Amino acid sequence: MHLLETRDLCVSYGAVSALKGCSLYVDEGELISIVGSNGAGKTTVCKAISGLLDAADGEILFCGEPITAAPSHDRVEMGIIQCPEGRHLFPGMTVMENIQMGAFCRRARAKAAENTQYVFGLFPRLFERKSQYANTLSGGEQQMLAIARALMAMPKLLILDEPSLGLSPINVQLIFEKLEEIRSGGTTVLLVEQNVERALRESTRGYVLENGRIVMSGRGDELLGDEQLKKAYLGI
Ligand code: ATP
User: Fold this and answer.
1) pLDDT of 105-138, one tens digit each?
2) Which of 114, 125, 158, 216 has an alpha carbon within 20 to 30 A of 39's alpha carbon?
3) What are the residue boundaries of the ABC transporter domain, all occurrences included (predicted)?
């Protein structure tokens, strides 16, 4: 049984069809990347899985159970946690307060203290800045905080939409290292990225999304060696 599976998932924005039958799966312990160019439908897949957008057709299963019609707050309680694009932190709250806000869901409340230790261990920089307001953090620190806050909800599946967007190379490197640390710590990660090469290099498997459909899938290193993908996405 897969942790997550989408079967022929279709999502539309009015007359615009953004996903046109997207099928993929994620197994426990994987770090999966969905890559593709602008407008391919990557954000739409994330939002459909976390329940922020309704499916027009197809099915989503989590731990073998259909969740296609489940509201997003129920999906959060099941362990599907999305770390949104653009970070969406609480800017007027401190680092510590933002982290505490991540433990709002029932399943995570009792373990908030323990999980705070875990996220500060993962991101010592956040511990150093725990009293600082979120809107005064650097871009890289804000991204760390967004991930830390998402981890406080104890995800079974952590979904990240473009976590490396707008970051300096050093911070991109750091975020990818942390994602691997999170995965090896037992949290399954689903990552959406425009940074095709980096994402595939770090992933157990990857999917290439084009115009609302999966056009290629495989192990990260296999996809990176594929001539067609190299030409289309890496300009090689
Ligand atoms: P990017 O990398 O540029 O963020 P993406 O792969 O995440 O792109 P989506 O944001 O999922 O792509 O968009 C998929 C398609 O759906 C695009 O053609 C986009 O224009 C369209 N779309 C997205 N949001 C809306 C909306 N609210 N209303 C109408 N069309 C939308």
Assistant:
1) 888 999 999 999 999 999 999 999 999 999 999 9
2) 158
3) 4-236
